[in-house]
Amino acid sequence: QVQLVESGGGLAQPGGSLRRACAAAGFTLSNYAMSWARQAPERGLEWVSAIYADGIVTYYAETVKGRFTISRDNAKNMVYLEMNSLKPEDSARYYCAKMGSPDTRYEYDAWGQGTQVTVSS
Fold first, then answer.
1. Long-range own/partner contacts, residues 105-111 (CB < 8 A, 24 or more apart)
2. According to the model, what pLDDT value does residue 22 have?
3. Which residues are within 8 A (CB) of 70 and not within 5 positions of it... i.e. 6 or more apart?
4. Do 53 and 32 contact (CB within 8 A), yes or no?
5. In the predicted model, is pLDDT for residue 9 greater than 80?
6. Whose CA is closest to 47, among 94, 101, 112?
7. Per-residue pLDDT, 91
8. How far is CA 28 from CA 74, 76, 93, in A?
9. Average of pLDDT values for 54-70?
10. CA separation for the pair 37, 93 (Å, rounded)
11. What is the DSSP letter of 43?
12. In this structure, are strands 58-60 and 68-73 parallel, antiparallel, or unpaired?
């Protein structure tokens, strides 16, 4: 049974930083690409970033490129999203997602429950 449990959300000031973590269980993390997505109440689901199974190939949405960094530690079954230079528009519920193959950023397979990130002064 696939389990994805996010942590590290919370409140940050504009310009601040937060680190999201996703603990993966029930599958072999090193065999799958992983992604982060977010959803704000007034907006639809927005893909944020993806990392292939090799941990080398990464992709970012234009809205976060240069500010966010995705990484993974397959030995620890963890995926991370480092968020810097946060803006109020980054406020959303952030979800970790397991992808359907080692090298896809389009084929979603499973989702975590999500945790809230709020950027406000």
1. 105/33, 105/35, 105/47, 105/50, 105/59, 108/35, 109/2, 109/32, 110/2, 110/4, 111/4
2. 97
3. 34, 36, 49, 50, 51, 58, 60, 79, 80, 81, 82
4. yes
5. no
6. 94
7. 96
8. 8, 11, 26
9. 97
10. 8
11. S
12. unpaired
